[in-house]
Each structure stands twice: as structure tokens, then as C-alpha cells.
């Protein structure tokens, strides 16, 4: 694969995804029992916003850096921003290197918790190992994340979160891979929380995946952030996440910050946000 997240680190999609991730992990931390965090497409862990890739696209300027200049952020967005800055902030709180999901998750792991991090690309996996500094709570696997769900689940911990955040280079074919992996994962670890990130270009491409999720025999909450209308296949108009087995009242928690994220990050007044139950028991 040619995808490198360094070109997109800290963009609006990262703000959305990582605010959701922190909220889900905080919900797991609310109970004393150990949990396991599983990341199928972990990436390199830390991204230099002054590097060549980030400088070329400057996507962080319309993402996390907009929040730095904002006043009166909702609590969840403040928490997200503080955790990002705590990992590697420069003088005056400037964000120099942006943390990926593994580093944000590690900051929320307790002594009894564990993480399984999968990354197929060798250089990215090597960088992730360096970023985690040999943390014994984190197991890094250089392997296909979808296959790992079939091989490594369930972990010893009964509770946990699986983040599926693929590059979607396969376009519609990515949904087929996700569905195949999730079907087995649900059977092996039915009580886990599953968060599946997806890009939004044209709405029609997402409809079959949502239809499939309605048959998952579990509660499914969908959150979406659109910075442009969802009818152009030529750009990333927004992104969404389907959350299977969401924590109690997690929809209310997301509703507290998602409208503000849209207000701060949308490039087009015709953009929007969405929060909907696909299935609720």
C-alpha cells in the first residue's frame, strides 16, 4: 500500500476519530476490570507536523490547530486537545508531533490493561515500536489487521475496544474486508466495543455497509462529521464511525461535542453532522 498517514495527521478526521476514541477508552476505564485495546491499522504512532509530508498538505491547520485557537470548547474536545498536547507539545503548547491512535490509547491504559497493535507496513511498524519505547502493555504485530482479528481474538481480558481504521485504498472493497473480519470477530468476542472509521465522499457508497450493520444483532450507533456536502467523489467530504456495543449513554456524550466540532472544522456551510442509531435494543 502507498498510503501514509503523515500527509493527513491532525486533520479534521483525526480530531473526530481521536475524540471518539478517547471517549470510548474513558468509558472502559470507568470500571476497575482490565480491558484490551485492539488497533487493526495502527500506523507509526507519532507524526511530525513540521515534516515534508505534513507541510505539503497542511491538513492539520484545518484540523487540530483550529481547536488551539478556539474558545469555550466542549469538555470532550478540551480533553482531546490536552491529551494530544501532553504527548509532544513544543514551547507555548504548539503541537509539533501529532500522536496517532496507539499513543493516545497508551496514555489511557492502566497497569492491568493491554493493547494489541497491528501494522502491516514494515517501516511504520518499526516506527511504532520506537514510539512506544518497549511498553510491556503493548504488543505490536507486523501483520494484516483483519487476519489478526480472526487469529488473536478473544484476548484474556473480557472487556475491550477494537478500532478499525483502514486507509480505504480498496474503496468499496474495503467494506467487504471489514464485514468479513467483523463477522468472525463478533462471534469470538461478542461483548467488545467495535469502532469502525470510514471516509465519506458519496453517501451511496456507505449505504450497503450500514444495511449490513443493522443485521449485526447488537446496538450500533453512527456518528458522522461532514465538512462538505456528501455528493462529490473527488474529495474527502467528511468521515464517520460506526460504534457497535457503544457504552451506556455514549450517544449523549457525542452529542455534547459533535456540533461544536462541525462549527469549528466545517469548510462549507452546507456541511453537517449526524448521530443516529442504526440498531438499538
UniProtKB/TrEMBL annotation:
Enzyme Commission number: 2.1.1.266
HAMAP family reported for this sequence: 23SrRNA_methyltr_J (MF_00934)
Superkingdom, natural source: Bacteria
Family: Belongs to the RlmJ family.
Lineage: Bacteria, Pseudomonadati, Pseudomonadota, Gammaproteobacteria, Lysobacterales
Catalytic residues in the record: 165 (proton acceptor)
Biological role stated in the UniProt entry: Specifically methylates the adenine in position 2030 of 23S rRNA.
Site (Interaction with substrate rRNA): 3
Keyword Transferase: yes
InterPro entries assigned: RlmJ, SAM-dependent_MTases_sf
Substrates-to-products reaction catalysed: adenosine(2030) in 23S rRNA + S-adenosyl-L-methionine = N(6)-methyladenosine(2030) in 23S rRNA + S-adenosyl-L-homocysteine + H(+)
PANTHER family per the UniProt record, alphabetical: RIBOSOMAL RNA LARGE SUBUNIT METHYLTRANSFERASE J
One Pfam entry name: RsmJ
Enzyme class per UniProt: transferase
Coiled coil (UniProt feature): none
Protein name: Ribosomal RNA large subunit methyltransferase J
GO MF term list: 23S rRNA (adenine(2030)-N(6))-methyltransferase activity
UniProt keyword annotations, A-Z: Methyltransferase, RNA-binding, rRNA processing, S-adenosyl-L-methionine, Transferase
Subunit text: Monomer.
Binding site for S-adenosyl-L-methionine: 18, 41, 101, 119, 144-145, 165
